[in-house]
User: Fold these one by one.
Assistant:
Number 1:
Amino acid sequence: MIANLRNLLMISMLLVSANAHAAGDAQRGAISGETCLGCHGIVSYTNVYPTYRVPRLGGQHADYIAAALKGYRSGERNHPTMQAQAAGLDDQQIEDIAAYFAAMTK
């Protein structure tokens, strides 16, 4: 009985810990995402080669940004510059960056 309670408590603690880790922190994201503003923070920015309009990320849904960054990191999404940027990010940094951009109003 005590062993079962102990196991239940340990599992509960792990779940709470995992959920706390997964949430993005916009303040940390401001530091990790500063580089992103060089392209994604410019209104109507267009890349020269290959030519495309760079999307503005401020106010975008955090889940979308996180999924996109994870897709670039894994190679599922194809864009060499974004793949290089996302390659060095861990899951927590991605969640933080996503929270930062989602919190932007402009």
Note: The chain has six helices and two strands.
Number 2:
Amino acid sequence: MSRTSRLALCCTALIVAACAKKEAPKDTTAAMAPAAAPAPAPAPALAAKDIAGNWHVAATPTTGKDTSATEFDLAATADSADWSMTFTKSKLKVPAKHSISGDTLTLSAGPFASQRRKGAKVSTVSTLKLEGGKLVGTTTAHYQNAGPDSVVTLRTEGSKAP
């Protein structure tokens, strides 16, 4: 190959290299995931002293024909002693055990004479949280010797008595 041909080839290569499109640098900001939102603060731990006092509570079945509320007054103390539930209509007073784990209150009572089913015995377990100054949650009622209708779930809400 002659010197002129080599020179022409080198010049052509330089021109092609100079005119070639260069790739834009990759945008690394788009590939980065947005920062995750901080996790919400955990609900403050509940204590018996937060609930101590008298509460008016209504428990309403979530299903079935009879959706009338069963009402009772809950007398809660700031210590580990049993609390009591006094049913509004019958004035039946029932001891209730309580436990608190994190922000959840569990209240267990029974067996006692059912306020919803004449002649039946029932045991209840309520799982409640303190929301906006109210006790809110669910109650599960277990009826003794009731066959397939032995469990009823109730929506439960209580307001502190003045």
Note: The CA atoms of residues 109 and 130 lie 20 Å apart.
Number 3:
Amino acid sequence: MRNASAFSLALGILTLGSISANSADIAAGNAKAADCSDCHGPAGISENPVIPHLAGQHADYLMHQMRNFKSGVRDNPFCVPMVDHLSDEDINNVAA
């Protein structure tokens, strides 16, 4: 019973993350992410081996990383200025 409760809680948390990504405006996200393509490639596939691919990443992971850059938890001189002006809604849209 205890494992079932933990599983239900984990599933609920994952579902909440999916809801925010599923309700995103992908066209608006693409417009906001245009500057990201300079480093990460127009399709999210970087040609530089030290710059990670964004294509194929889960939206929840991307939202988490963008929020880490924005809050200062994660530092990168290129990414921080790219996300600094984004609202939470923008971050959800870009991640989608």
Note: The mean pLDDT is 84.
Number 4:
Amino acid sequence: MQKFKRISAFLLIFTFFTFSVAKAEDMMQKTMRDALYGGIVGALVGSAVLLLTDNPDDHLSYIPTGAAVGILAGAAFGVATSGVIQSATAEVEDGKLTFNMPTIKKEKIYDEVANRYEEIDQIDLIKVKF
């Protein structure tokens, strides 16, 4: 449990320090909104699981636990989809392998068949420099 608290604290600190760059307001709003929605969904899931137990009074901690997990998941989703981190999940450089958080990038491409622009999502999984 102590390890989970340390990891959670590190992720929260990382999330908030990541957004001290330009365009932070819009991205921070998106991350905070995702974290809020995640907390609400987590509390609802915790309540649903609580209602499935034999003695709901003994398991009231499911609600704040679900909300906390939802906030962390929502914040992680907000960071991953905000476009701040623009790197591949795994990179190989000078014979060293490093792992990063995957990032979803939106890109507009022109579809000649449909004669219109389409927005696609792109995730870079591996990047190798030659």
Note: The mean pLDDT is 76.
